[in-house]
Amino acid sequence: QVQLVESGGGLVQAGGSLRLSCAASGHTESNTAMAWFRQAPAKEREFVARIRWISGSTVYADSVKGRFTISKDNAKNTVYLQMNSLKPEDTAVYYCFLSGHWGQGTQVTVSS
Asked: pLDDT per residue over 8-32, tens digit each?
C-alpha cells in the first residue's frame, strides 16, 4: 500500500507562485516515477508533470512548460511542484500520482 499526502495549495493572485509537496510512504520500493495531475471544475483530470525517480528526467504538459518545475528529494520520498507565473486557468485540484495511487488532492485557486 502506498500513501500520498499533498500540501501547499492555496489562494494566490495571477502572476504569483506556489509550491506543492507530495510525500510518499508505504511500499514505494518499486517507484519509478511520480507525477502531478490536476482537475478543474467540470473538466477531466489532466497530466501536469512527471519526474523519474532515478534519472530525474522530467516531462511537462505544454500548458505549464516554462512556468512549473517538478523536483524530488529521494531521501524524503517527496516530490515538489514549483508553480510560477500562475494564471486563473491553473485553478484546479492538484493530485499526486504514484504506482496507481492518488493523493487526496490540494486546491489551487488563482484570482485574476
From this structure: 999 999 999 999 999 998 877 667 8
